[in-house]
Amino acid sequence: MLVEQLMSRPAVTCRTSDALARAAQLMWDHDFGALPVVDADGRLVGMITDRDICMAAYLRGQPLADISVEMAMARQVHACAPGDPIGVAEKTMSQFQVRRIPVADASARVVGVLSLTDLAREAEQEGGRRRPDVTEAEVSRTLAAICQPRREEQVAPVL
């Protein structure tokens, strides 16, 4: 099974120049906990989570409208391609402990997002099939890897 068969689309993104208030509104409207961040040319440059937004507001002591997404986003982003096998995405999610991974085309334009939820739903649907493409055991291993406590050197400083 390929990533493009499970990913959520269309991708909802925000721009580096958007205020955190805009990112928070998009997350609220679409019931997401994270968004891919794109530059002015629409290319993937980062990810922002609801936690990033909260921590930036707390640490800066400013309203969300006064802080840009660029100030709070994670710049190290791990993406996959629509044609990647699901196993590649699961491995990336496990290795980098992320619950959501943007799916980008060859031009770095975001075409979707693959989440742990997408994997879990597929595993549940495939429970009755003889040879499922995504198994409950694989989802369980991916979740366990994501939830491992991070070593101190892995934690990026905020702002």
Task: Describe what this molecule looks like in 3D.
- It is a single chain.
- The protein has a single domain (3-148), classed as CBS-domain (Roll).
- A hairpin with a 5-residue loop joins strand 4 and strand 5 (110-115).
- The strands form 2 sheets. It has a 3-stranded mixed sheet. A two-stranded antiparallel sheet has the order 4-5.
- It has helices at residues 3-6, 20-30, 50-60, 69-72, 86-96, 116-125, 136-146, and strands at residues 14-15, 34-38, 44-49, 100-104, 110-115.
- It is an alpha+beta fold and 159 residues long.
- The longest helix has 11 residues, at 20-30.
- The protein has 7 helices and 5 strands, in the order αβαββαααββαα.
Q: Could you outline the blueprint of secondary structure elements for this entry?
A:
Blueprint: H1 3-6, E1 14-15, H2 20-30, E2 34-38, E3 44-49, H3 50-60, H4 69-72, H5 86-96, E4 100-104, E5 110-115, H6 116-125, H7 136-146
Parallel strand pairs: 1-2
Antiparallel strand pairs: 2-3, 4-5
**Computed structural class:** alpha+beta
The termini sit apart by 38 Å
Shape: globular
Spatial order of strands in the largest sheet: 1-2-3
Query: What is the CATH domain class?
Result: Alpha Beta
Mean pLDDT: 86
In terms of quaternary structure, the protein is single chain
Main sheet record: 3 strands, mixed
Q: Percent range for helical residues? A: 25-40%
Low-confidence stretches: none
Kindly give the count of domains.
Answer: 1
CATH architecture: Roll
The CATH topology is: CBS-domain
Instruction: Please identify which CATH superfamily we are dealing with.
Output: CBS-domain
